[in-house]
Amino acid sequence: MGDATQNEHDVDLFVIGGGSGGVRAARIAAGYGARVMLAEEYRLGGTCVIRGCVPKKLLVYAGRFAHEFEDAAGFGWTVAGATFDWPTLIANKDKEIARLESAYRRNLDAAGVEIVPQRAVLEGPHAVRLADGRRIAARHILVATGARPNYGLDIPGRHLAITSNEALHLERFPARIVVQGGGYIALEFASLFAGLGAKVTLVHRGDGLLRGFDQEIGALIAGELAAAGIMLELGVTIDAIDEMEGRRRVRLNDGRVLVADEVMLAIGRVPNTVGLGLETAGVQLNPSGAIAVDAASGTNVPSIHAVGDVTDRVNLTPVAIREGHAFADTVFGGKPWTVDHSLIPTAVFTEPEIGVVGLTEAEARAQGRRLDIYKTSFRPMKATLSGRQTRVFMKLVVDQADDRVIGAHMIGEASAEMIQLVGVAMSAGATKAVFDRTIALHPSAAEELVTMRAKDPSSDPLPAAAE
Q1: Distance CA 304, CA 141 (A)
Q2: Cis peptide before 443 (omega within 30 of 0)
Q3: Number of continuous H segments (helices) and E segments (strands) in the chain
Q4: Which domains, from first to last, does the chain contain?
Q5: Which residues are 251's β-sheet partners?
């Protein structure tokens, strides 16, 4: 960087948003010698650390102990007098979040990034305005403001509902809760609240859960949730919410009324683009309200870039981190690369949990591929003594053209851990023959991934175009 650049701009990179994507980009850019300033008006860590993945997973762990206590009896253990205290869980969760936020701050400080704890908005292609009135000139600007829960239900009493944000900070544990939504956030919170002892009703307008996942996964998890005592109300929506003696009265669109301590809306998330000055800077949005970017996270304004959920590409923390890293390497490190969004392992932390990677069967067929489908369903070894009525399900989608495994879908304990390594194999282009010749680890659920031999009899119908 020459003297002209130093004099023309206050910083080389200004990052708006202190979540995982923005922090990674700031650190990597600073490591290349860039002068970096990062503005965050709330807390460092973003959705994942403060109000998403991390605190949610801690609550998921808490919800699983009840099952563990029940299962212990079949193995000779007597667990008497176990009690649960919601305030203790929330307080310990908050301590861990504070620790992680401090770690984010230390890492940024160590990298030489200047942290500005206030809101910043765009004033042009190379300028941002801070809440205190300061104007900062930047050679490059990165928007990494993430997304927020969708409050989109235009119904009476909407203000009485909570979202995933507030669910993590409730002062009192809700003995009864109604959750609206059919995606992974709705299912995870319904599952963890049920595990902690709440009476849960899941309301969803569709007739199936987890749209976009393999159809069999959605059907099987519905059965597991129902078996856990969660009431599934599919094909209905909430029409109104009102207060009744400190509780919530929920009217459904079929006329029925439910009573609960809390109502949680989990009907999707929307990009945080409002009030950022994007229009002033001439940055284009796509129809969903997200910032439109190219494969290199560039907008239509050459000096302005965006990563993470604000772009509404693949809204997962590890994706935002890789996008931020790729941006910094490309713009400041002279090592251009882009993120491949085509093969991303994903987990849903219900009980039991779900792990998926690659194409669903429906997606593969829509591409005109001829497929071999391998499936297995079995009672996990642990359940033979615990007596729990649950099953593990695994499915591999294989392209007949080259025998490559192009999709893997599973439900059962440790599915998230297994699917990460299945993703490694698939990223390397592993074929079904490679899976087959891998020696099984026995006894484990994972061994089924390399011992499946029988094809689904209906796995090779002709593509619709060929019929």
Answers
A1: 5
A2: yes
A3: 15, 21
A4: 3-149+270-332 (3.50.50.60), 158-267 (3.50.50.60), 352-456 (3.30.390.30)
A5: 240, 257
The size of the chain, in residues, is 467
Q: How many CB atoms lie within 10 A of CB 7?
A: 8
> How many alpha carbons lie under 13 Å from residue 313 in its C-beta half-sphere?
23
Tokens encoding 330: 């490309």
Burial 222-258 (b: 16+ CB within 10 A, else e): bebbeebebebbeeebbbbbeeeeebbbbbbeeeeeb
Give this prediction's pTM: 0.93
Q: CA 442, CA 439: separation in Å to the nearest integer?
A: 9
Candidate list 126, 140, 169, 442, residue with the active-site label? 442
First-to-last C-alpha distance (Å) of the chain: 62
Quote the tokens at residue 272: 């945080």
94: left (phi over 0), alpha (psi -120 to 50) or beta: alpha
442 as an active site residue: the answer is: yes
Which residues are CB-neighbours of 286 under 8 A, at least 6 positions away?
292, 312
Answer for the pair 11, 38: CB distance below 8 angstroms, yes or no: no
Quickly tell me which residue has 């019929």 as its tokens.
Answer: 467
Q: Where are the beta strands (DSSP E) in 302-404?
A: 304-306, 346-348, 354-358, 371-378, 392-399
User: Does residue 252 contact residue 239 with C-beta atoms inside 8 Å?
Assistant: yes
- Can you list the pairs that 449-452 forms with residues at least 24 positions away whose Cβ atoms lie under 8 Å? 449/394, 449/396, 449/408, 449/418, 449/422, 452/374, 452/375, 452/376, 452/394, 452/396
Task: Compute mean pLDDT per 10 residues along the chain, 467 residues long, and list them.
Answer: 57 97 98 98 92 95 94 94 95 96 96 97 97 98 96 88 95 97 97 97 97 96 97 97 94 97 95 96 95 98 98 95 98 97 96 98 97 97 93 98 98 97 98 98 97 81 43
